[in-house]
Design brief:
The chain has 253 residues and is α/β, with parallel strands linked by helices. It has helices at 29-44, 66-71, 80-90, 106-109, 140-148, 150-157, 165-171, 183-196, 199-209, 212-230, 233-243, and strands at residues 4-10, 13-19, 50-55, 95-99, 102-104, 116-120, 124-126, 163-164, 176-178. It has one domain: Alpha-Beta Complex (2-enoyl-CoA Hydratase, Chain A, domain 1). Strands 1-2-3-4-6-9 form a 6-stranded mixed β-sheet, sandwiched between helices. It has a 3-stranded mixed β-sheet with strand order 5-7-8. Helix 1 (29-44) links the parallel strand 2 (13-19) and strand 3 (50-55). Helix 3 runs antiparallel to helix 10 (212-230) and helix 5 crosses helix 6. It is globular and about 55 Å long. It binds coenzyme A (COA).
């Protein structure tokens, strides 16, 4: 399947660029695998001080490839998506992200694991898991309500409501909102600031601020349900409807 993740390193900054703009950077198993492997190497390489996640084109990420969802096997728990998700939860170095346009599904839930979030003015965050017959992932059922409160998190996780950049900033999901043409610069400047900090102190501080055990336990509970939901008739209807470019019909369930 087409689509790549471009991995570049400049001094202490490793950048993972989701680069599949014709499919709105929808993530395939191979792309998750590339990101996970790069993060594992980054974790082990003292020269990497910070990892930045970006998306090519007009839109950050349209979430998981829905065709891959349709083809998912019963052994989905072993898929690279969950390898990537588990790494997000355990990553010890600073993670930063720059988001333009839509960030859907994991495109939004990965932000909850980032230590610095820069949004372009047109950024729009959404997590339409229930609309797809699914449940939240990446510990978002824990981290999103903790960040913005149950009701607003429910509106996003269960109702698929879209949150615009300024609202996300006000809700505490981002550090800053910048004009679109300043996003690259803002991310690069933040990355340079992180990479100049004493790495041991940064990592110890991140470790104090996060509870990887709690996050991991929630992720595993989500993965079990998510794998079941992927095979459900509700989810199959939602995926098929997307591929056929029609509205799903849940009236029969
Ligand atoms: N999986 C597979 N293909 C996807 C995709 C996804 N998650 N998101 C977009 N694409 C494909 C479209 O099918 C389309 O392919 P085509 O050109 O072969 O027809 C192409 O990318 C462009 O998408 P399009 O919907 O025309 O772009 P848009 O700018 O009008 O809308 C989105 C962008 C992100 C709002 C819309 O594509 C969308 O809702 N995608 C699905 C998001 C989603 O539900 N993700 C899963 C979350 S768990």
């Amino acid at each position: 399947m087409s689509g790549t993740v471009d991995i570049t390193q400049d001094a202490g900054v490793l950048t993972l660029l989701m680069n599949r703009p014709d499919k709105k950077n929808a993530l395939t198993d191979a792309m998750y695998g590339a990101m996970a492997s790069a993060m594992e190497q980054a974790e082990a390489d003292p020269a990497v001080r910070v990892v930045a996640i970006r998306g090519a084109g007009d839109l950050f990420c349209a979430g998981n490839d829905i065709g891959d969802f349709l083809n998912a096997s019963n052994r989905v728990g072993e898929a690279n998506v969950f390898r990537f998700i588990r790494l997000l939860g355990s990553f010890t170095k600073p993670l930063l992200v720059g988001v333009q346009g839509r960030a859907v599904g994991i495109g939004t839930t990965m932000l909850l694991h980032c230590d610095h979030v820069v949004l372009a003015e047109d950024a729009k965050l959404s997590t339409p898991f229930v609309n797809l017959g699914l449940v939240p992932e990446a510990a978002s059922s824990l981290l999103l309500p903790a960040a913005i409160g149950h009701q607003r998190a429910f509106a996003m996780l269960a109702m698929g409501e879209v949150m615009e950049a300024q609202e996300a900033l006000a809700a505490g999901l981002a550090n800053t909102v910048v004009p679109n043409d300043e996003l690259d610069d803002a991310v690069a400047k933040a990355a340079l600031r992180f990479s100049a900090l004493p790495p041991g102190a940064v990592q110890a501080t991140k470790a104090l601020m996060r509870d990887p055990g709690l996050v991991a336990a929630k992720m595993e509970a989500e993965i079990e349900l998510f794998a079941q939901r992927l095979q459900s008739a509700e989810a199959r209807e939602a995926f098929t409807a997307f591929m056929e470019k029609r509205e799903p019909d849940f009236s029969k369930f």
